[in-house]
Amino acid sequence: MIRVDVDAERCVGHGRCYSLAPEIFDADEVGHSIVLVGEVSGEREARAVDAQRNCPEGAITLS
Ligand code: SF4
Predict the structure, then answer these.
(1) How many Å is the Cα radius of gyration of the chain?
(2) Ligand 1 atom closest to residue 54's alpha carbon, by position in its atom list
(3) pLDDT at position 51, please?
(4) What distance in angstroms lies between residue 54's CA and the mean position of ligand 1's atoms?
(5) Which residue ranges make up each domain of the chain?
(6) Is 63 within 8 Å of 3 (Cβ atoms)?
(7) Closest ligand 1 atom to Cα of 60
(8) What pLDDT does residue 11 have?
(9) E-only strand ranges, 16-58
(10) Quick one: fold of 2-62?
(11) Distance 9 CA to ligand 1 centre (A)
(12) 3-42 tens-digit pLDDT
């Protein structure tokens, strides 16, 4: 089980995270990321890691 957080100060709304993992992330009204599922396991862990690696701003933290 890993915890998923998005740093709202860093997120600029590229949308890669919610395109890659829409079951974990969604967009707010201006396109910034919001976390739908704060703790993920199994298959979702790999999707969360994929999203983290593809965030150009380094805004996604997994712990
Ligand atoms: S990919 Fe990163 S910068 Fe883009 S919306 Fe997601 S968290 Fe924000």
Answers:
(1) 10
(2) 1
(3) 98
(4) 8
(5) 2-62
(6) yes
(7) 7
(8) 98
(9) 25-27, 33-35, 39-40
(10) Alpha-Beta Plaits (3.30.70)
(11) 11
(12) 999 999 999 999 999 999 999 999 999 999 999 999 999 9
Instruction: Please give the single-letter amino acid code of residue 33.
Output: S
10 Å Cβ neighbour count for 34?
14
42 C-alpha to ligand 1 centroid (Å): 22
Best CA proximity match to 15, nearest among 62, 56, 63: 56
- Count of residues making up the chain: 63
Closest C-alpha residue for ligand 1 atom 2: 55
Q: How many Å apart are CA 6 and CA 31, to the nearest integer?
A: 13
Cα of 45 vs centre of ligand 1, distance in Å, is 17
**The token pair that represents 24 in the structure block:** 């974990």
57 CB under 6 A from ligand 1?
A: yes
